[in-house]
Specification:
The chain is 35% helix and 22% strand. By secondary structure, the chain is an alpha+beta fold.
Length: 399
């Protein structure tokens, strides 16, 4: 297979996104019909990005740029070197670089896979600082890509995209399964149509025997910490280290971007939290919830929540997610939104009787087990896809 090296700008158009204001500084720029994609949206996307949390108005569009569907988004700050191809026309800020492939030189899917499997680790070696990684456009364009002829790129992309199609199917199944658990919670604990409800009186707006308490009264709110980033002995071990960057839209978190060693764990304020610990992001993007699928440590931008009442962690996850807007509404901060341990004193939390939460956990256990299995399948498919690309590039597998 003939392979030549090119910089990204030799394969198509490369430019940074545009955004001059944060929402709190210029609310008139937001809330319109134009999708505004941010780094977290790119990280959460699969091969194609179609979901987003923010939009621009006409005024927002006027100070930005509408990138066409098919543009490859490459994050250069926060969630470093994440990629996704726009499945819609969208704007994005200068923390994202847009790449529009020259159709005679490059297949956009191939370039994305090259980033994900080969170059992401090399890009991260350029980053500076532990609190906020960054990668400039100049550094990005200094890298050269090993690129085969276009027909080979397309065949390689066709093979690898089959893995992404399976991953997307699993993600959709996870969303449907979580919806089933959420709807059951809503039926039983919001509308009070639970088993035996016809025999229970409503007293002061709640079924008899139920109570509403502060969240801090029914769960432990535990803090984390970060070992010194300057000490290499603390990093790269076998212990997952959860940060807000690792938060997913699925109920569980399985892997983390960074890992620490046993020595690193001893050197920070975090403990090793057990399986099913509920993490909540507490700074910046507040209120992302994930259950740990494996034991993990955690940094200081999150809290770990453990039930100290009769209900289990899965009920805690579904119940807190149902009222997460109450948590976000209490976030504050001069630089970025944040919640504190004291915030949980202000959050009302519904406490049903033990027998009902036990039945809820029994009904939802198969749902959560299936979600966990699907997430593990996604991890294996992702690893297989990324291992396949170098072999295809070396010609070990004929395409």
């Amino acid at each position: 297979m003939k392979v030549r090296e090119f910089t990204l700008d030799q394969l198509g158009e490369v430019a940074r996104g545009r955004s001059r204001h944060r929402p709190r500084d210029a609310a008139f720029l937001y809330g319109g019909p134009y999708p505004f994609v941010q780094t977290g949206d790119v990280k959460r996307a699969g091969l194609y990005l179609t979901e987003y949390e923010q939009t621009y108005s006409e005024a927002g569009l006027a100070q930005s740029r509408l990138w066409p569907a098919g543009t490859l988004c490459i994050t250069i700050a926060a969630n470093i070197a994440e990629t996704a191809i726009l499945g819609i026309d969208a704007c994005f800020p200068d923390s994202i670089i847009g790449f529009i492939a020259d159709p005679d030189k490059a297949d956009t899917r191939f370039v994305k896979y090259l980033f994900d499997a080969v170059l992401k680790r090399r890009f991260r070696s350029f980053t500076q600082g532990a609190a906020q990684d960054n990668l400039s456009q100049e550094k990005l364009l200094s890298m050269k890509f090993p690129v085969p002829e276009l027909s080979i790129q397309k065949r390689i992309a066709d093979i690898l995209s089959a893995y992404d199609e399976l991953i997307d199917v699993n993600r959709r199944r996870i969303a449907l399964l979580e919806d089933a658990a959420r709807l059951l919670y809503r039926e039983w604990f919001v509308h009070f149509r639970f088993p035996g409800c016809e025999r229970v009186k409503i007293v002061d707006g709640l079924p008899e025997g139920w109570e509403r308490r502060a969240a801090s009264a029914v769960m432990d709110v535990l803090s984390g910490g970060t070992p010194k980033t300057s000490n290499p002995a603390y990093w790269g071990g076998n212990i997952g280290f959860f940060t807000p960057k690792d938060a997913t839209d699925s109920p569980f978190v399985l892997t983390t971007e960074k890992t620490i060693t046993e020595e690193g764990l001893r050197a920070c304020n975090s403990k090793l939290f057990p399986v099913d610990t509920l993490f909540i992001t507490a700074r910046g993007t507040v209120g992302k919830l994930n259950l740990a699928l494996v034991p993990m440590a955690m940094n200081q931008s999150c809290y770990a929540l453990r039930s100290k009442s009769h209900f289990g962690q899965r009920y805690l996850y579904v119940a807190l997610k149902a009222s997460i807007e109450q948590v976000r509404a209490r976030a504050f901060g001069a630089v970025f939104d944040a919640i504190t341990v004291a915030t949980f004193d202000q959050i009302p939390f519904l406490v049903p009787p033990e027998w009902l939460t036990r039945i809820f956990e029994e009904h939802t256990r198969p749902i959560f087990n299936q979600i966990a299995n699907l997430m593990q399948q996604i991890q294996k498919l992702t690893q297989a896809r990324d291992l396949l690309l170098p072999r295809l590039m070396r010609g070990e597998i004929v395409v």
